[in-house]
Design a protein that fits this description.
The complex is a heterodimer of chains A (400) and B (241).
Chain A: H1 4-11, H2 13-51, E1 55-59, E2 72-73, H3 76-81, E3 86-100, E4 105-113, E5 129-130, E6 139-143, E7 153-156, E8 159-167, E9 178-182, H4 183-191, H5 195-207, H6 219-228, E10 232-233, E11 235-240, H7 246-256, E12 259-263, H8 264-275, H9 277-307, H10 310-318, H11 323-352, H12 364-391
Parallel strand pairs in A: 4-9, 6-8
Antiparallel strand pairs in A: 1-11, 1-12, 2-10, 3-4, 3-11, 5-8, 6-9, 7-8
Chain B: E1 6-15, E2 22-32, E3 37-41, H1 48-55, E4 63-68, E5 71-75, E6 78-79, H2 83-90, E7 91-94, H3 106-116, H4 121-134, H5 150-162, E8 168-172, H6 180-197, E9 200-204, E10 216-221, E11 224-229, H7 235-240
Parallel strand pairs in B: 3-9, 3-10, 7-8, 8-9
Antiparallel strand pairs in B: 1-2, 1-4, 4-5, 5-6, 10-11
Bound molecules: adenosine-5'-triphosphate and magnesium ion.
Magnesium ion binds next to loops of chain A.
């Protein structure tokens, strides 16, 4: 026996291929949507990996520092360092803002890193070009996704920074490239008041007689200095000594001061379960709609193609073709269309994924699930056409 | 086994029920011997198509008896089990238009029937090529139906009707769209094939040009058949006369 479906496809391959390509682009979009979700999860994991932290110490009862604002005193890390099981602890600030050089601006996550050496929590773990920050002011390490290059002068708030190093795949959970600057600069940028507010504050303080008593000449200056200092950071990143359980150390830090401490699994839960949950549901909706649209297209095409073959189907039935043979012919064509579509979609998605501003991660496992889904959808979509074909009366081949 | 060709006795067909019922066939008798070609003529609405569909096992008669060779097909409401296999193996069909399968080449259009019956592809194609040779279209064996002339397509469809060597072929106005020369050529082929393969052929027709070619005709009027002698003219006489 020959393959009726295969012969029909070969006979009309142009139409078939064009339809398959159209369907394929749709499947490509579907695969890309799944890739966008995987990319967001992966961005989150990379963010956690690259922070170099095993514990995140944040403001009490917050999901900080990535999912909620968190503000703690910048001397807490000293106390944390003395806790049993703590190997390293370092302050860090995160602030998403516009960063620009002379030509353009990008949205970036500015990370303030504590003084130290490479390997300090919060520091970029590796560079693709240049060097780490060595001076305590006005140097920056930028992710290449920002588009900045070595030697660029970039502006963050009122100050200019020189880009001395470049990283790769250092992004926020929102996919924004990171720009690392010294902690002091970052604190200033984050908590900086505008000029008027500073002046007004000073004027109010000077006018307060309590600070300018004749017997204590230094008090006013000290108060003003303390007001312009910014004693806050967003989190303390902690690395553990070997042999200590993260949960126990976290509990003892949390008990010591009124702080919340997240472990790595908790941070993953926050990023995936809370921060990108809405985006994931959004993408899920897209996947559902795209599947329905694909199914509708396949159903429509296969149905139209079957209607165009009603007379041939009547003849086939009259000369003794089994219903099963005719049904499988139609189903094979639908699945064939799906296979062409899947190949086109996979190639298209692979081709255009790098062009997306956010990371698109195409997992082979997702492709397999996608392929199975396409086959099932196409098989289901052919059922209407099969029903129509089975209802064709063989007597219709004989004139009335 | 094919000694008696096709025989029907007292065949009736009623469409619908109650007040709207139509008695399309009211007791039809007909016998066609192997190797014989008979015409079936009659005015519009007389029941020609109904009879052909009953003979072709696509509709079931209401009552009456039909035998194909020694095999009983219908007997007063009883019928054999597998009408589909019967159509595939024991009945050939030729239609008004060739109705070839457009996505199969000429050889496979013919070979499809033995293939459907489970004959291996190679053997099925060999049988198809034999018949295409007999019908003078072997040179188009690899062509697609759309690349053939109307006459060539009709010959391929006759090869398809013959390939499983059925004891009976039913032809439904096979010459309707053809001019008289081509119509006569098709009739000559049907006569030749009936003779060569010992096939009983029944031709439903309106076509005045080909009526003189039948030695025997059934005239159907108001659901009943009347047998008539035909002229049975030779083709040479028709073409030149
Ligand atoms: N499916 C059907 N249901 C009800 N009545 C039918 C059906 N098919 C045919 N008839 C009726 O049966 C009668 C015979 O019809 P049939 O089609 O056999 O005629 P015919 O001789 O082939 O006519 P024509 O030469 O016009 O094709 C007609 O009165 C027709 O209306
Ligand atoms: Mg008719």
């Amino acid at each position: 026996m020959i393959s009726l479906a295969g012969r029909d496809i070969l006979h009309d391959w142009g139409k078939f291929l064009l339809t398959g390509i159209g369907l394929g682009l749709l499947i490509g979009v579907t695969l890309t949507m799944a890739g966008v979700y995987r990319g967001m999860v992966d961005d989150g994991m990379v963010l956690l990996d690259n922070s170099g932290a095993e514990l995140w110490v944040v403001q009490q009862e917050t999901l900080g520092p990535y999912a909620e604002p968190s503000s703690i005193y910048d001397d807490i890390y000293r106390g944390v360092l003395t806790m049993p099981g703590v190997a390293q602890a370092a302050n860090v600030t995160y602030l998403t803002m516009q960063v620009g050089n002379r030509d353009r601006e990008v949205r970036a996550m500015v990370v303030g890193i504590a003084p130290g050496r490479p390997g300090t929590p919060g520091w970029p773990p590796y560079l693709v070009a240049g060097r780490q920050i060595t001076r305590s002011h006005y140097e920056a390490v930028a992710d290449i996704a920002s588009g900045f290059t070595l030697g660029d002068r970039i502006r963050i708030r009122r100050n200019e920074y020189t880009v001395v190093g470049l990283t790769r795949r250092m992004v926020s959970s929102g996919g924004d490239p990171m720009v690392f600057i010294p902690l002091k600069d970052a604190q200033e940028a984050q908590f900086l008041k505008d000029n008027d507010a500073v002046l007004q504050g000073r004027r109010r303080t000077s006018a307060n007689p309590a600070f300018s008593r004749a017997g204590a000449p230094g008090v006013l200056d000290a108060v003003i200095a303390s007001q312009s200092r910014n004693p806050s950071v967003n989190a303390v990143l902690v690395q553990l000594r070997p042999g200590y359980a993260a949960g126990e150390v976290a509990a003892s830090i949390a008990r010591w001061k009124h702080l919340t401490v997240h472990t790595r699994p908790e941070m993953e839960g926050i990023l995936v379960g809370k921060l990108i949950a809405t985006a994931a549901r959004q993408i899920g909706m897209f996947l559902v709609i795209l599947s329905i649209v694909s199914a509708a297209i396949v159903a429509f095409i296969i149905y139209t193609m079957t209607l165009g073959k009603i007379r041939e189907i009547a003849v086939l039935k009259l000369i003794g073709t089994r219903n099963r043979t005719i049904a499988s012919m139609i189903m094979q064509q639908a699945v064939g269309l799906g296979v062409i579509g899947f190949v086109v979609g996979k190639v298209a998605a692979t081709f255009w994924a790098p062009g997306f501003p956010k990371y698109v991660l195409l997992l082979p496992g997702d492709s397999l699930v996608g392929f199975a889904g396409v086959v099932v959808i196409c098989a289901l979509a052919s059922l209407i056409a099969i029903r129509t074909a089975l209802k064709v009366d063989p007597a219709a081949a004989i004139g009335g | 086994m094919t000694g008696t060709g096709i025989r029907i006795e007292g065949l009736t067909k009623r469409y619908g029920e109650g007040e709207t019922a139509v008695d399309a066939l009211k007791g039809v008798d007909m016998v066609v011997a192997p190797g014989e070609v008979v015409g079936l003529i009659g005015p519009s609405g007389s029941g020609k198509s109904t009879l052909l569909k009953s003979l072709g096992a696509v509709i079931e008669p209401t009552s009456g008896r039909m035998t194909l060779g020694d095999e009983v097909i219908y007997d007063d409401g009883w019928r054999i089990g597998d009408l589909r296999a019967l159509r595939r193996d024991r009945i050939g069909f030729v239609f008004q238009a060739p109705y070839l399968i457009p996505f199969l080449d000429v050889t496979d259009n013919v070979a499809l029937l033995p293939m459907l019956a489970g004959v291996p592809n190679g053997e099925a194609r060999r049988r198809a090529l034999d018949l295409l040779g007999a019908l003078d279209v072997a040179h188009r064996a690899r062509g697609m139906p759309s690349q053939l002339s109307g006459g060539e397509q009709q010959r391929v469809s006759i090869a398809r009707a013959l390939v499983n060597r059925p004891p009976v072929i039913l032809a439904d106005e096979p010459t309707a769209p053809l001019d008289s020369e081509r119509a006569l050529a098709v009739m000559r082929l049907l006569h030749e094939m009936a003779h060569r393969y010992e096939t009983a052929i029944i031709v439903v027709t309106h076509d005045e040009k080909i009526i003189p070619t039948f030695k025997r005709l059934y005239h159907i009027r108001d659901g009943k058949t009347h047998e008539e002698a035909g002229e049975g003219l030779e083709f040479a006489e028709l073409v030149h006369g």
